[in-house]
Amino acid sequence: MSFPHKCKRTHRGLITVTFATIAITLAGCTHQSATQSTTLYERLGGQGTIDTVVENLLYRIADDPEVVVFFANTNIDLFAESLASQLCDVSDGPCHYEGPPMDRAHQHMGLTDAHFNRLVEHLDAAMQAEGIALGARNELLGRLAPMYTDVMRLQ
Amino acid sequence: MMLFQSMFSPSSSPFRHFFFSCLAVCLALAAMPSYAGSRIVSTGGVSAIEGAAGGGLSPWAVLASTASEQEIGVTAAATHAWVDDYRLTVTGASLNVYDRIEVSVARQTLDLDTLGGELGQDIYGAKVRLLGDVLYHPWGIWSVGMQHKRLVDGTIPTALGADKTSGTDMYLSASKLLFSAVAGRNVLFNATLRNTNANQGGLLGFGGDQSSRSWMAEGSVGVFITPQWVVGAEYRQKPDNLSVAKEDDWQSLYSAYFFNKHLSLTGAWLNLGDIAGLPSQRGGYLSLQAAF
Predict the structure, then answer these.
(1) pLDDT per residue over B232-247, tens digit each?
(2) A86-105, pLDDT tens digit by residue?
(3) H/E element, A151
(4) Whether B267 contacts B255, CB under 8 Å
(5) CB-CB under 8 Å, B184 with A133
């Protein structure tokens, strides 16, 4: 009755191969992106596209009663400019974000995870509407995601 | 062709009716415009076969539905799996309170196509999110959970040598999404450590002559081809408590599509190894989940 043992080995082998393939793919892709010469800023479409994304996002915020209340006392022009420069900075563009740090900018607003999630959805929808490719969208969201901790620190 | 025959072959089981009712309810509810939680689509995973939010075979650390802070979510799911000599039907429901606590119930029915008869168990589950978030937290999301399982009829499992007809699994689970990890696609990782005495997930009873409780590792990797479509592999280590019924680890290759925050469909290829003396059980899996 060596069959079950053989079967178990094949079984284990298949799993090892699956996970090894995934690991190698991951390593390969990391290597590839490290050697990629274009910046995320360029793949997003440069400042022109970033500005239209910000504008698109502001319309979505204006239409969302759950979120728009947080902008009641905000100078929208200043906010748009600041956000565009932040997205440019974060995506390795030729900008330096000089606005307030994320914890100070959002302190005591009473933000919940629900508000944060809605803004993420609006931003992704805005990027999609402005024709940004999925890879660049994911990468930008990935660079913004760690800001969650700062945004929520002083709630 | 055989696949469809085995999927839709008539059965006297009263649970079959329940299964189709649940399927109908899922579709009807999903068609209605209604409230959705604010978490991002797909961050609640799908319904695992034991009722908790997860992949198909293993629970994940994420909580069911897209309910977030100050929100409540409900899911209902109908699942059918068919391998060479068995068919498993699962109906389940779960409740997510404030993305902190998940409670779930599931009824599993295993049709013993070759051996004759059927086995069934009820599973009552609870999961608590300890910390984090699958998307935003640097450590991902961490949860602990328990699953209390009770066999409907323990005659066959007891005859095979199982010690008990009910048991409780405890597990610690972590999930983390890595943005833009493979060709610009997001990749989801899950790891679960389970303390269990269940034989074949509990359907063959609990404990046996070879051992009783042990720690088992489960894991999965999934690549989001699009934000609504994830494909991946899942692996679940299993104990081997019964000398007369050798038990193997489970594995699957899965594809889950989220039509929206309310409806998802999961398909998988299963390799469940030996079950109750019948070797190398392979087959398919379909699961439909509705969430609110």
Answers:
(1) 999 999 999 999 999 9
(2) 999 999 999 999 999 999 99
(3) helix A147-153
(4) yes
(5) yes
Across the interface, do B40 and A120 touch by the CB < 8 Å criterion?
yes
If we measure between CA atoms, which residue out of B257, B255, B237 comes closest to residue B247? B237
DSSP output for B78-140? EEEEEETTEEEEEEEEEEEETTTEEEEEEEEEEEETTT-SEEEEEEEEEEEEEEE-TTTSTT-
Q: What is the pLDDT of residue B36?
A: 78
Are the C-beta atoms of residues B137 and A113 closer than 8 Å to each other? no
Same domain, A113 and A69: yes
Cβ(B10)–Cβ(B35) below 8 Å: no
Rounded CA-CA distance A26/B141 in Å is 21
- Rounded to an integer, what distance in angstroms lies between the CA atom of residue B243 and that of residue A31? 48
Q: Which residues of B touch A33 (CB under 8 A)?
A: 180
pLDDT confidence tier of residue B212, bands split at 50, 70 and 90: confident
Do A46 and A60 lie in a common domain?
yes
Residue of A nearest to B272 (CA): A11
Instruction: Name the DSSP letter for residue A36.
Output: -
Q: Give the domain range for residue A99.
A: 39-153
For residue range A8-34, list pLDDT tens digits in order: 555 555 555 555 555 555 554 554 554
The enclosing H or E element of B59 equals none
pTM: 0.85
User: B274: which chain A residues are within 8 Å (Cβ-Cβ)?
Assistant: 4, 7
Cβ pair A140, A90 in contact under 8 A:
yes
Chain A interface, mutation test: which of B39, B71, B97, B179, most A Cβ atoms within 10 Å? B179
Number of domains in chain A: 2
Domains of chain B: 2-291 (2.40.160.40)
